[in-house]
């Protein structure tokens, strides 16, 4: 039976550490880290995420300003707001909540954020810094995954890590971060031939496909550490991309859904915002 990796507990422990950093910034430099979140429209999941970010900022002492804009807001108006926030001395991090309405380009908005305020780690300069190992903001979910692995004592050196999913938000960046820690990494996806044969090789298995319960227990190597990034609503249940009840019988450790990776994503966003204020 696998150990359950308590992402919520680890995130709360980190919040205490981050609160001390905020307190030191305010005391030593009279700087309070500020995060601006732009939310366009009424997407229920986005509204929930933004509310959770506000609460986490409050717990840590980060100033949080949310711009809730109607769905009919134009791309030009969103870009003008981003320009204004780029110039603000009180705002150290800017986040545009995705997905945006179809008439607004995700790419245009992400590119408009100054890289030194790109606390989501999505700007091409941030992505480039990650690729070549330069200092910069790491994308929050991949960074959160790495912290979870570190805090539960997983030594990645020489391990075979298998990542299922190739998105720019999770799959590709987490593969690069695993490589940084000297793991041997296989990156696969829904079209990989005989996917189970590949996933069964993973000492660490990270699944981020957005497909409910795509990975069954027989696709997990005995003793593997399983990180399930998926959050999918199936009927009245929230499930991951892994069949949890099957995988927990095979793995040595596994993240639950909810309560695994999700809380870490928000914590890493706050960590990036504090770092932006420290670098300023």
Explain what this protein looks like in three dimensions.
- The protein folds into 2 domains: about 30-115, Leucine Dehydrogenase, chain A, domain 1 (Rossmann fold, 3-Layer(aba) Sandwich); about 140-260, 3-Layer(aba) Sandwich (Rossmann fold).
- It has helices at about 5-30, 45-60, 75-85, 105-110, 125-130, 140-150, 170-180, 195-200, 245, 260-280; strands at about 5, 35-40, 65-70, 95, 160-165, 185-190, 205, 225-230, 230-235, 235-240, 255.
- The longest helix has 23 residues, at about 5-30.
- The strands form 3 sheets. A 6-stranded parallel beta sheet has the order 1-11-8-7-5-6.
- The chain is globular.
- With about 280 residues, it is α/β, with parallel strands linked by helices.
For this structure, what is the CATH class of the largest domain?
A: Alpha Beta
Order of helices and strands: EHEHEHEHHHEHEHEEEEHEH
The Cα radius of gyration reads 19 Å
Structural class: alpha/beta
- For the termini, the CA-CA separation is 47 Å
Summarize the amount of helix as a percent range: 40-55%
CATH topology label of the largest domain: Rossmann fold
What share of residues are in beta strands?
Answer: 15-25%
Mean pLDDT: 96
- CATH homologous superfamily of the largest domain? NAD(P)-binding Rossmann-like Domain
Given the structure, what is the number of helices?
10
Low-confidence stretches: none
Structurally, how many domains make up the residues? 2
């Amino acid at each position: 039976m696998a150990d359950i990796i308590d992402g919520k507990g680890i995130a709360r422990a980190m919040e205490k550490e981050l609160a001390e950093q905020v307190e030191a910034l305010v005391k030593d430099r009279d700087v309070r880290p500020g995060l601006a979140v732009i939310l366009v429209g009424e997407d229920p999941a986005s509204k929930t995420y933004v509310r959770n970010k506000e609460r986490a900022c409050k717990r840590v002492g980060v100033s949080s300003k949310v711009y809730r804009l109607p769905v009919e807001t134009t791309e030009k108006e969103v870009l003008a707001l981003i320009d204004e926030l780029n110039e603000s001395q009180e705002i150290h991090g800017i986040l545009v909540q995705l997905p945006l309405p179809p008439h607004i380009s995700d790419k245009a908005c992400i590119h408009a954020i100054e890289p030194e305020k790109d606390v989501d780690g999505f700007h091409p300069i941030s992505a480039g810094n990650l690729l070549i190992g330069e200092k910069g903001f790491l994308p929050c979910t991949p960074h959160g995954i790495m912290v979870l692995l570190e805090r539960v004592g997983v030594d990645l050196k020489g391990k075979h890590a298998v990542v299922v999913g190739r998105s720019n938000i999770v799959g590709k960046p987490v593969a690069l971060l695993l490589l940084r820690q000297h793991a041997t990494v296989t990156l696969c996806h829904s079209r990989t031939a005989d996917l189970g044969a590949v996933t069964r090789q993973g000492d660490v298995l990270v699944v981020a496909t957005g497909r409910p319960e795509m990975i069954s227990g027989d696709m997990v190597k005995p003793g593997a550490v399983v990180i399930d990034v998926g959050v999918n609503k199936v009927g009245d249940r929230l499930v991951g991309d892994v069949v949890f009840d099957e995988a927990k019988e095979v793995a040595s450790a596994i993240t639950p859904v909810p309560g695994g990776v999700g809380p870490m994503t928000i914590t890493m966003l706050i960590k990036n915002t504090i770092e932006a204020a420290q670098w300023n």
